[in-house]
UniProtKB/TrEMBL annotation:
Record flagged with keyword Transmembrane: yes
A molecular function GO annotation: xenobiotic transmembrane transporter activity
Ranges annotated as spanning the membrane: 120-139, 159-185, 220-239, 251-275
Pfam families: ACR_tran
Key words, A-Z: Membrane, Transmembrane, Transmembrane helix
Species annotation: Stigmatella aurantiaca (strain DW4/3-1)
Keyword RNA-binding: no
Official protein name in the record: Acriflavin resistance protein
Entry-linked Gene3D superfamilies: Multidrug efflux transporter AcrB TolC docking domain, DN and DC subdomains, Multidrug efflux transporter AcrB transmembrane domain
Lineage: Bacteria, Pseudomonadati, Myxococcota, Myxococcia, Myxococcales
GO CC terms of this entry: plasma membrane
Amino acid sequence: MGGVRVGKYSTGGRRIDVRLRLLADQRSRPEDLGGLRVRASNGELVPLSALVQQEERPALQAITRRDRERAISIFANVAPSSNQEEALAMVEQAAKQLPGGTRVVLGGASVAFRESMGSLIFALFLGIGVAYMVLASQFNSFLHPVTVLTILPLSVAGAAFALGIAGMTLNIFSMIGLLLLMGIVKKNSIILMDYALQQREEGADALEAMRRAGPVRLRPILMTSLATMMAAIPAALALGAGSETRAPMSIAVLGGLSVSTVLSLLVVPAFYVVADRLKDRVGRHAPRPGAGQGATGEA
């Protein structure tokens, strides 16, 4: 069927095998196997159909093993309307219906997805903690860093909204975009807080300080945010090879940055003023050190 190599010939500096085999119309059908002749022990040629019984049965093209166990590899891609986490849940649900003695071992991008998601979430919270410590040392306050970091949940909401509009899901690449977003959006709050604290040192109260900081810092905030968003637009358009990895990151940055830029001018000043007033109320109602002893001595 496959032919027998009977010789070689050279052409153009290459050596090509010469094979002798049946004509195409004599080996293209399954029943043609019965017409093949094999040599018996007495030297006669007998048809193969006289020696064997031909029967069609389903069979594996190849038997693969992993860790000395028989294994079947199944490759699949996530549908555009679904995400990787939902696909993994469906695979695990289907695995429960398999007969006893079989098990499912995930591999490839699915394993990397679960391992990376845990690491990225840890990195996200670690970055927030480190940012709080750096801001606390910079502003010499435990309250002002909280005001700066209030914009982070709003930026995450904006990124999730943008990913939903674009028909994308939260995957490894969009999580990397969120990590990048955490470092970008804080600058707007820092710009506002820095100028407001300068005004507080000049004698302005919290409300007046934020009123002055808004118009003065509006232009730097818009310029830096728009420059970052313009740089992310080409990657968000998903053009060229590898766009499936760049687009989720860029869309997450675009959505989070656009929402945080607008809301940072509203939420951060409001939170700062409310927090300052609460701080003053708590300070007025807190007992002063030695106040009770002084009253007792006078009595």
